[in-house]
Amino acid sequence: MESIDITTNSKYSGVEYEIRVKLAAAYRICAYLKWDEVIYNHLTARIPGTEHILLNPFGMRFDEITASSLVKIDMDGNIIDKGCTDWGINKTAHVIHTAIHKARPDILSTMHTHEVNGVAVACMKEGLIPISQNSMLINNITYHDYESISVDISEQERIAKDLGPTSLNLVLRNHGLLTCGRTIEEAFYNLYVLTKACEIQVQVMSMVGGDLSKLNLPPKAIQDSVQHIAANFNKEGFGVKEFNALYRIVEKLDRSFKL
């Protein structure tokens, strides 16, 4: 498997530092792709073998995130390591993301954005429609109804229930997209494919004036075939090659995310 050089001085050692660098890179990649929204939205990663997760300090832009700026919290939202700021975290990050990490120990990383096309599809009753190859690559997408800004801790139970035991892609209706992965690379590539599928859908729907009867929907057998063939392209790990390709871009632009 292709490896990424993340060697540099750090107060963190081993697995935690590697997770910090990859997650910081994911923030920088999202900024590069213009999926960020000032200081809002969150990408998380669990530190393997612990009940601690990493996420962004509330006030830092995605393009500013570094390995050492990430905040470490426990599953109750308590700050274990504040990183290099005193800004703390956005409460909505705790409500949304720890709900998933607590309910799904198989998930290492979660990623939530308000990218405009993703929000647009989240506002459609039909949700994601299998009209493009990108949309057909997405397996077992689930939906969570909007309940206002996510500050009520009781919403965690409903988020976890709506994600379910196997889904890695959750559309937060009227809100945005949330993807998960057993690795940071997988969570990111799920986000990439889902975001691109939403972008295509928004453009197609504008072309047909929202008339679903004008859409060419491939048969279910074809949709299943797309997922089967795509799986053979990812034997090294879903999203690894794609994440590494984008990692090299942000590394070339600015290596400070490793600090």
UniProtKB/TrEMBL annotation:
InterPro entries: Aldolase-II_Adducin_sf, Aldolase_II/adducin_N, Aldolase_II/adducin_N_sf
Species of provenance: Tieghemostelium lacteum
Record GO cellular component, one term: cytoskeleton
Upper lineage: Eukaryota, Amoebozoa, Evosea, Eumycetozoa, Dictyostelia
Protein's UniProt name: Alpha adducin
Single GO MF annotation: actin filament binding
Pfam (any one): Aldolase_II
Stretches assigned to the Class II aldolase/adducin N-terminal domain: 21-202
Coiled-coil features, chain-numbered ranges: none
Cross-referenced PANTHER family: ADDUCIN, PROTEIN HU-LI TAI SHAO
